[in-house]
Amino acid sequence: MATRKPGGRSGKEARRAELAEAVQRALLARGLEGLRLRDIADEAGVTPAAVLYYGDLDALVHQTYQQAIARYGQEREAAADAFADARLKLAACIEKGVATGPDDALTRLLFEYWPRCLRDARAAALDSALTERQIAVYAETLVLGGAQGHFTLQDPPRLLAANFVAMEDGYQMDVLAGRRTRDEVVAALSAYARAVTGYDPSTPPEQHV
Asked: Could you give the CA distance from residue 197 to residue 150 in angstroms, rounded to a whole number?
């Protein structure tokens, strides 16, 4: 019978989780193009042969990207779900969608892998799923804001939601490269929100007349 770690995780599951963390560290340190199986093995403190037990390099990287996407989507949804007021949801969506800075590990992981989407159908499918997931959160928030009487939408909710996500993606590279600060990007997205909804997410709801 498999041994169990605290929290009900088996030894094999724990080792897989540790390996996933090693893949992330190696990806962030070397980048996708320079990544070797040896780099992952060194991060995990094992031999390359031991790493191969869990899959080849492409499979391990794909799994890491898949996990990063799931975590990113879950965190965005949880941030929005914390509020019933669409104004607070919108502010949370914007805040959660912007990298904290050049060292934001989760966002860097997503952008390290993104170029592969141009040639890899599996990677492109994951990226499309993440984009749709982010658009859905924004669209639901915008529809709710209209129903609550807080937003006056200038275009269809889905179009505006797609624009929010596209702006985020464009600005993320600036934040990761250190060309813009997180605060500057949040301000830019808030300005767009104000233009298309009539509400400024940077201002607490109680300050609106």
From this structure: 8
User: Ramachandran region of residue 7, left (φ > 0), alpha (ψ -120 to 50) or beta?
Assistant: left
Q: Which CATH number fits domain 65-201: 3.20.170.40, 1.25.40.880, 1.10.357.10, 3.20.20.150?
A: 1.10.357.10
List, in sequence order, every residue forming a beta bridge with 4; answer none if it has no partner: 10
Map tokens 């607490």 to a residue.
204
DSSP 8-class letter at 182? H
CATH class of 10-55: mainly alpha
Euclidean distance between CA atoms 86 and 65, whole angstroms = 30
Tens of pLDDT along the chain (209 residues) come to 344 445 445 677 788 888 888 888 888 888 888 888 888 888 888 888 888 888 888 888 888 888 888 888 899 899 999 999 999 999 999 999 899 999 888 888 888 888 888 888 988 998 899 999 999 999 999 999 999 999 999 999 999 999 999 999 999 999 999 999 999 999 999 999 999 999 999 887 765 44
Cα 56 to Cα 53, 70, 108, 201, distances in angstroms:
8, 21, 22, 45
